[in-house]
Every structure is written in C-alpha cells, then in structure tokens.
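thread: overnight batch results

M.L. [08:02]
morning all. the overnight job finished for the chain we discussed friday. pasting input first so we're all looking at the same thing
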Amino acid sequence: MKRLSKYRRHPLAAALVIGLGLLLVGSIYAFATPAAPAEASNARNQAVQEGRQMFLKGCSSCHGLNAEGTKIAPSLIGVGAASVDFQVGTGRMPMADASVQAMAKTPQYSPTETMALAEYIASLAPGPAIPSQESLNYSRDGNLAQGGALFRTNCAMCHNFAGQGGALSQGKYAASLMGVPPQKIYEAMITGPQSMPVFGDRSLTPLQKLSIIKWLKNAENEKAQGGIALGKVGPVTEGLLVWTLGLGLLIGAAVWLGAKSK
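M.L. [08:03]
and the structure it wrote out:
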C-alpha cells in the first residue's frame, strides 16, 4: 500500500487510471454487445450482391444494367423493396411481352430470391419498404365499416363494388382482390402497380389501409343472403344476364304459343 501511495501523486497517475477505466469499459461493452447488427449487415450485403447477379441475368435486358430503365421498361430506382416483392412475388415479373398488362401467375423466383432482388433494388435509392407481418394485423387495427366506405370511394370504380375486378380502357383490367394475401394488397396500395394510383400515407393512413383489407377479407367470406349471387360481378353484368335470359324465355314462349295456335 505504501508503494502504491508513493506513486499516487505522480503526474501520469490520473491519465493511467482513466486509460485503464476506458479499457475496462470498452472490453465489457465489446463482450456484452451482441454481434447481431454486424451479422445482419453482412447478410444484407450478401443478399444485395446475390440480388444484383439475379437482376443482371433476368431483369437487366428490359430495365437496364443499372435499373435505369429503357424504352420498353421503366426505371426501378426508387421503387422500393415493396414494389419488387409485389411484382416478382405474384409472378407478374418477369414478363415476356412488355406491351401487355402483367398478369398474376406462378412466381419464377423463390421467396428467398425475391427478397434478394428486393434488397438490391432497395439499395439503389429509398422507396416503400415491405410491410412486416406485425404491421398487418387488420383484424385488430382495422375498422370494417370504415374500410367498406373507403373501398367504395377509392377502389370500387375499378375493382368492382365487391372486389371482383373489372375491365378498364385500352384492353387493361383491374384484377380481382379475392384471395389476395394482405401483404400484397398493402404493397399494391403503396406502390401503385400497372394502372393503379399510389395511395401514400397522406392519401390513406396505414390504419385506413388495414380497414380496407379487413373489409375485403370479410367480403371473401360473406355468404349470399339469398338467390343466385352470379359471382358478384356487378349490377350491369348481372342485369344484362337477366335481361338477355328473360327476353330469350319470352321469345321462346311466343314462338311456342304461335306454333301451338297453328
């Protein structure tokens, strides 16, 4: 103790104590801090590189080597991971003919490959992110009545009053929303695929989007209250069917009565 007290007043004693203290704190922090952030960053970088390789092989011929776009396909810079997840995850992309509307079909890429492509496109510029499953709890956060009103105001003119889809101008169409996963519906609203407008958070808040999804899922399971539902394709088509069928029956009855009178 006497030997230690002898050096306690040394000019370098304070600096030595502070240095040892910082070394101790740094060592504890290094051992206590999990390596997950660094591992996550490495995994993301690897996914970005894999996504770039897949992009060069399967997408660059239309969208350009750096996703800058060409005469036949738009730029993907700034579209975000959500757009890639929607287009590729539903099989709409890649497509053979860019002059027609992309149709939903069996995806050509696995979920892991789709995520890698999404990570690469997201690394080019900020854009809408893929919504997490935790943020899509529409049964808890959505409002059914509000969702119906919002759907009729913003969506029914294209997707039909019951979400069955409908024809648009110039040979295009609005796809049916029945059976579509909530994540894909949400991604479509925030990215605006095909002829669909983008519904950002200023147009529809996240809770309003969940309310629309809740209404659509309720419409999927809604039972017919009576009569023939006719696929819920809309009053014009249903009326035309009934009108044509009714006229056909009347004409048939008239011909039959005329033949009987002879």
